[in-house]
Specification:
- The chain has seven helices and five strands.
- By secondary structure, the protein is of the alpha/beta class.
- It has a five-stranded parallel beta sheet, sandwiched between helices.
Length: 146
């Protein structure tokens, strides 16, 4: 779904040629996956992608300052849970700095961010409960549809 987030951002801001990708360097496996997907999507869309790192809230101000210096037309927030738990802060910064931003979870848009595209966490939790119930009743996990 990561490339779709970049594609939607590009549709909303078609004049943007430079975009940022926010990642948490303390989660190297997520960074590698996010960067690989987003670089491929950016190349397909003809966009220049800049990877920006934040592992503390103090890093956010420098991230948005860098976006301003780059004249970035938007920001894709990576999939790290660190960003989810700071969605309100990131949404407020994106509004204050007028940077169109897309996040994985709907709660980001509810907090004031521009948009989201990804898994619905409440639906995901419900599905986990349903599958757990089926397994406890005797269904074999390998036979459950995924």
């Amino acid at each position: 779904m990561g490339p779709k987030r970049l594609e939607l951002l590009h549709e909303v801001v078609p004049t943007a040629t430079v975009v940022g990708l926010l990642v948490n360097p303390t989660s190297p496996d997520l960074v590698e996956a996010d960067v690989k997907e987003q670089r491929a999507a950016a190349q397909t869309l003809g966009l220049e992608l800049h990877v920006l790192n934040a592992s503390t809230e103090r890093d956010f101000d420098s991230v948005f300052a860098t976006l301003s210096q780059l004249r970035a037309g938007g920001l894709v927030i990576g999939t790290d849970s660190f960003f989810y738990t700071r969605k309100e802060h990131l949404a407020a910064l994106s509004v204050r700095h007028r940077v169109p931003t897309v996040h994985q979870y709907r709660e980001f848009a509810r907090a004031g961010g521009l948009m989201s595209y990804g898994t619905d966490t409440s639906d995901l939790s419900r599905q986990v409960g349903v599958y757990t119930g089926r397994i406890l009743k005797g269904d074999k996990p390998a036979e459950l549809p995924v």
